[in-house]
Amino acid sequence: MSAFTISVATENEVREIQLGRRLRHFNYTLVGEYPEGQAISLNAKDEAGNLLGGFRGEVSFGWLLINVLFVEKSERGKGLGRRLLAHGENAAREKGALHARLDTFEWQAPGFYLKQGYEEYCRMPNYFKSFALFLLRKDL
């Protein structure tokens, strides 16, 4: 076995995304080339420019991966989350997404997503302390 060391990657090494690029080129040898992920970043602000919520996701392989959907507590229940999600899904469709997926803890918003047409495909009980993690999906 050859000698090697394992160390924490530097911030510069992470920013250069060299490791991801290498994995991508390996994948190309198996499935052919495919486009890089396309980010979707949306903000909701009030008239004064204060951030009320936002949406962060990425489209890759025809799937929208929702990383963050957040609405300030004072704005919840007013339809902002639903509108952010709909705008994010529409932007994903424009980028070629056919499906969406996300994960959410039971203290967050599984019920909200279910009302928006998402379905649970996996539940991991006791993922964090006694709380379950839900994996949800939706056809766009």
For this entry, give a set of tags:
140 residues, 6-stranded mixed beta sheet, single chain, 38% strand, alpha+beta, 6 strands, globular, Aminopeptidase, 29% helix
Give a structural overview.
This protein has 140 residues and is of the alpha+beta class. It has one domain: Gcn5-related N-acetyltransferase (GNAT) (Aminopeptidase), CATH 3.40.630.30. It contains 4 helices and 6 strands. It has helices spanning 11-15, 18-31, 80-94, 110-115; strands at 38-45, 51-60, 63-71, 99-105, 119-128, 131-139. It has a 6-stranded mixed beta sheet. The termini are far apart. The model has no long low-confidence stretch (mean pLDDT 95).
Flag low-confidence runs: none
Q: What summary fits the major beta sheet?
A: 6 strands, mixed
What fold name stands as the CATH topology? Answer: Aminopeptidase
Q: What is the straight-line distance between the termini?
A: 49 Å
SSE blueprint and pairings:
Layout: H1 11-15, H2 18-31, E1 38-45, E2 51-60, E3 63-71, H3 80-94, E4 99-105, H4 110-115, E5 119-128, E6 131-139
Parallel strand pairs: 3-4
Antiparallel strand pairs: 1-2, 2-3, 4-6, 5-6
How would you briefly describe this protein structure?
This protein is α+β, with helices and mostly antiparallel strands and 140 residues long. Helices cover 29% and strands 38% of the residues. The protein has a single domain, classed as Aminopeptidase, CATH 3.40.630.30.
